[in-house]
Write a structure and sequence with these properties.
5-stranded parallel beta sheet, 5 strands, 120 residues, globular
């Protein structure tokens, strides 16, 4: 099981990368990633395509403990590492679910205690 960062899902939706159908069940996202991808839709047709493609992945719940942990991380890293709210929630999700993060933006997460991996 691996968590997909928004940048990976955006490239998947835009056809820049392929994800094997058999591998899709191993990839997870949360509603933050979903929203970051959906907000890029330019019209209803594109929105429908995005929603269809992201439905390939399992959605992890963002429980209150994840939000509290993300808030603590923001207090610790927002000023020193320019951590954003979205990255804090994604990082907290990976840490709480003990999942590696598949991302191109490793510098955004390198200071967290999570495994950072490339897309297979």
């Amino acid at each position: 099981m691996e968590f997909l960062d928004s940048c990976i899902v955006i490239d998947y939706v835009n056809g820049k990368i392929e994800i094997d159908d058999n591998a899709k069940s191993n990839y997870y996202i949360n509603s933050i990633v979903e929203m970051e991808v959906v907000v890029g839709a330019k019209n209803k047709r594109e929105l429908a395509t995005i929603n269809k493609k992201i439905s390939d992945f399992m959605i992890l719940d963002i429980e209150q403990d994840i939000m509290e942990f993300a808030s603590k991380m923001l207090n610790q890293y927002a000023l020193s590492h320019n951590m954003t709210i979205y990255d804090a929630i994604i990082g907290a999700s990976c840490m709480m679910y003990n999942m590696p993060l598949v991302t191109y933006n490793k510098r955004d997460f390198r200071f967290l205690d999570i495994a950072l991996v490339d897309i297979d």
